[in-house]
Amino acid sequence: MAYQLIVYRHPNRAWAVPRVVDTLEEARYEALAHIVNSHDAADTDDWAQCEVSAQHIPQSGGKVGPLPDGYVIEVRRLATPARRA
Questions:
Q1: 44-54, pLDDT tens digit by residue?
Q2: How wide is the angle at C-alpha 44 spanned by C-alphas 65 and 6, nearest 5°?
Q3: 8 Å CB contact between 4 and 78
Q4: Would you kindly state where each structural domain of the chain is located, as residue ranges?
Q5: Residues 51-75: pLDDT tens digits?
Q6: Partner residues linked to 64 by β-bridges
Q7: How far is residue 74's CA from residue 11's CA, in Å, rounded to a whole number?
Q8: Is the pLDDT higher at 36 or at 80?
């Protein structure tokens, strides 16, 4: 099952470019990578909670955030397999 990963600055979802990955594990990894790359040492507790949330995105999909930097990570389960170019 493929998943669509959308990262956007809340509430400006319109400019977000979705990314399609093949598995839930990849979606969780990409979400976690965004969080780690955006991490601000001053907000350690808030970021740590976001990391836990990203690691537990359910198979049905879900959202993480808003993150301390204002971004939201949305994961959607797609009905069709991912298409590769």
A1: 778 888 899 99
A2: 25
A3: yes
A4: 1-23+59-80
A5: 999 999 999 999 998 888 888 999 9
A6: 73
A7: 12
A8: 36
